[in-house]
């Protein structure tokens, strides 16, 4: 595991941000992509409100959160700032009611039932948001998401919904030190996106890559990388703790 340093002040945070941005630029130069195609989405789960305010001061205004109630509490505490809240983690359909009011984007749609609830609640709020389908590319039972073979069918079924638009696919790569295995997950998502895009041209984006693997993800076509620890420092607990229901 890499060592992610927790910044002790605003300058330190700024340095971490610029290091990540330099890494993005370097990898893009290496492979001939335009760094402007890649959105760096800071992931603020477990962080205190002050850290988010600091990141906002540095010019970031979209943040990824993976737990419903935590996201809601932060939205409420920071309503005075024009922040975009992006839910990147699993959402149980009985919790849609807590988030429909404020999330500006959702990266983990993985069932028709959830899609129905989301559409219904967004309609009540008179809101429309962009959505990504989460795909399980790693065959790990611990990961959420539809199987790759099911993604197109779910997108077909979602065409009836008016309040969200599917703009891309999202995945978490296998938790492995083996870069080949990690890359295979990202390739699976990209190939799937290419197939789906022939039928649904609006399905363009690839939300993939985190602190430990965003360079591989960018090489494989990521458009949205979700980065927490490389910016804000190591979290105390391992990821499966945050990804549990
Ligand atoms: C926590 C999390 C991330 C970011 O992970 P880091 O290791 O902090 O970069 C990305 N995606 C999801 C779904 C997460 O829950």
UniProtKB/TrEMBL annotation:
InterPro entries, sorted: Ala_racemase_N, PLP-binding_barrel, PyrdxlP_homeostasis
Transmembrane segments: none
Any coiled-coil regions, as ranges: none
Keyword Ubl conjugation assigned: no
UniProt cofactor(s): pyridoxal 5'-phosphate
Family, as annotated: Belongs to the pyridoxal phosphate-binding protein YggS/PROSC family.
Protein task: Pyridoxal 5'-phosphate (PLP)-binding protein, which is involved in PLP homeostasis.
Name of this protein: Pyridoxal phosphate homeostasis protein
Species this chain originates from: Acinetobacter bereziniae LMG 1003 = CIP 70.12
